Here is the input.
Amino acid sequence: MAFGSGPAQAHDQLIGSNPKQGAKLDKQPEWIELEYSGEIQDIGTEIRVERDGEDYSAGEITVEGRTVKSALPDDLKPGDYTIAWRVVSQDGHPISGKVEFTILDSAGSGGEVEDTGDDEAADKAEGDQQSNASDQEKASEEGSGVSLVVLILLAVAGLGALAAVIMMFTRKKNITEDN
Here is the structure.
């Protein structure tokens, strides 16, 4: 085949979050901040904050380079929360994942994170989450078939072949008429 595969491109990944994966918070966070390995496109960005099936998402989502931020309502109750996010990475592919955190019973408004000393465990859990999101993205790509670039190249090649066939028939017709 004339068109070989190009080098594989890795999708951007979540590299940090506030609150961190698995964080136990003394105080409710005022906002969410997600940091990625590459520039995030400002299209199709979604952040949902959920507890027991209820959506607690609040403010406008802001995309600034590699960082995505969103304000939270100031009345979150103690409990386990999940931040479900979806962004479009710099290569144009959507990526998604989750970050889980807990607001302890003594929580009030403020946004400071309790230092549990479990940074290594939280980083490992966040790494596992990133790995899971990456695996999901790979599976999604495999299921979606051929990439857009390959489709465009095939379309151009097809049009070129069609033009060549038309030229051959027209040329043959002209030669036959001249005789």
About this structure: Residues 39 and 65 are 5 Å apart (CA to CA). The chain has two domains: 14-144, 146-179. Residues 1-8, 107-122, 131-146 have pLDDT under 50 and may be disordered. The first strand starts at residue 14 and ends at 18.
